[in-house]
Each structure stands twice: as C-alpha cells, then as structure tokens.
Known about the structure:
The chain is of the alpha/beta class. It is 41% helix and 15% strand. The chain has 2 domains: 21-201 and 219-224, 3-Layer(aba) Sandwich (Rossmann fold), CATH 3.40.50.300; 239-328, Magnesium chelatase subunit I, C-Terminal domain (Helicase, Ruva Protein, domain 3), CATH 1.10.8.80. The protein has 13 helices and 11 strands. It is globular, with a radius of gyration of 21 Å.
Amino acid sequence: MGRNRADRPLDWGLVAASQEPSLQPRRAAELLERVEKNIHRVIVGKDRVVRLALAGLVAGGHVLLQDLPGTGKTMLARALATSVGGTFRRIQCTPDLLPSDITGSSVFNQKDLTFEFIPGPIFANIVLADEVNRATPRTQSALLEAMGEQQVTVEGTTRPLERPFFVVATQNPTEFHGTYPLPESQLDRFVLAAEMGPPTDAEALEVLARREHGDPLADLASVVDIADVIELQDACLRVVAAPAIRTYLVALLQAVRARPDVLLPASMRSGVYLQRAAQAWALFEGRDFVLPDDVKLLAVPVLAHRLGMRGRGRAAEMLNEVVTTLPIPPLRQH
C-alpha cells in the first residue's frame, strides 16, 4: 500500500490539479529574460536591481528607486518603460507641482461652451515620478488613489486607469536640500524599494565606453508589448504559494513585530506584497510555485522601506538577521 497522504513530503509545485489555465512558466521566463537583456543594453551591471524593478511590474505593484543623484535611477525607469512598450509619461516633481498637474483638470471649451477634461500624465501605462520627494505632501497624496485603486477621482468623477498601470518613483536621500519625506501611507503603496548602489570600476569604465559617442537609450526599442505584460501579470497571479509558504510569511511578519528595535512594524499589506513579489520572482526561474528562498531574497526590498526603527537601527540589517534565524516550517502536509 502507498503511504498515507498526510505522510507524503510537501511538493512545492503541487498545482497540477489546478483548474486554472496553464501558466506556461517557460514562456514567462523567456519574456522576462528578453526584457532584462534589453534593459542591460543601457544599464551596466545592477542585475539584481533590474530584476527587482521588473518583478514589481510583473507583480502588478509599484517600485521606488532610491539613491544619490546620477546613479542611474531615471535611466533604469526609462529603459524599462521603453522595453515593454505602452504609453509612458514622466512627471518631474518639484515643490511648485500641483495635484492637478498629475491627475489632470477640466478646461472650459469656448466653442462648445462646456468643460472638457484634459487627462494628466497619470493616465499612462508606465509613469515615472522623478524625484518624488521633492514634491509637496499635498501633491504626493495625488498619487495615492491612483497607486492603490488604479483610478483617479477629479472634480467628483472617478476615471479608471488602463491596465497595466505601473509607477516607478525615484527619490534622493532625505538629507538633501528641498526634499519632503514620503509619508508612511505612500511608502506602503510601493511593492518594493531598491537602491542602485555605486558602480564597480569595471562597470564605470563600461558606462564611459558606451556613452563615448551618444546615449544608448536613444536606440533602445521595445521587445515585448502590453499584451505580453498583462499575460505576465496574469501568470503571476496563478503561481502557487503553498500553505507552508504562507505560514512562513506570517511567522516572518510576527518576528519583525516582536523586535524591540522596530517602532513601526510591517502592515498586513506588506505580507500580501511579499507573497506577490515572490510569485513574480518564481516566474524568472520558470517556476509556477514559490520557494522559501524567494521569500528570503525579497524580504529586504519589500519590507525595509516600510519599517520605522528606533534610534539608529537599520531595517535591512534587522531583516537579514530575522531571515537568517527564522526556521522554515515543516515541509509536510498535516
């Protein structure tokens, strides 16, 4: 006789019996690899950051790129937008930017004697909010509804945003002159945050060589279309996170909340985003199921920017410690 079902090892890929359409994870991995290679025609190195930004798009969320000026944040966002096609708009955030400059407003048409709504730059598939922390809090809040609900309400009328809708925001360190720290409610809307980091000597030499005779971004073309992006986002939703994975996610959030050096813990939304980001990450590997290593790898980029720390504690260091010491649940069904 075979073993009882309860005694069988848990198969992380136990999704064959699902009634959902085939995931085609190999095709998803091929599409993602195509986009990554295209972005790297412009971005030298930064493999992890490029994949994180693309994972945010596949997960159906939004991405925050943080670092010093001149590290390639805007270039990465533009390269990603160009690679996937669709409509693209850039919002250069400044202290005098108004909410209506983002969402749009109604203008009186003297010919028809009616008010005509003129959509703002938020009505695009991919929106780059450059130096978002230079905008005032009032203007920053104009992004909240769009990022959370994929819709915009202007003058009492709610207008849906086209799918996919993806915001890539860049920000400079808060110590810089003329910056307004993003509120916790807005930070929580980003599925993940990443830092570009300084280039290595070899990467710096390659950047100079590529730009000796022009801007490589000018020759960049799309390698997938919006239909492919929507297919990837749908495939992400069908990637399976086994019960043991969900148990591990809950234990991770509880371990973070229990830390005495954490002043503002991660919300439940952060757990949902961590699971969704892990689902997207699995597609890069051609899998239709999540592994614990996916969660470990994404814990810092998904959770760190949401946490408030006491004193001079660093969220990334604390999360790395928690992930290292937290045991993985038993890989058996009960």
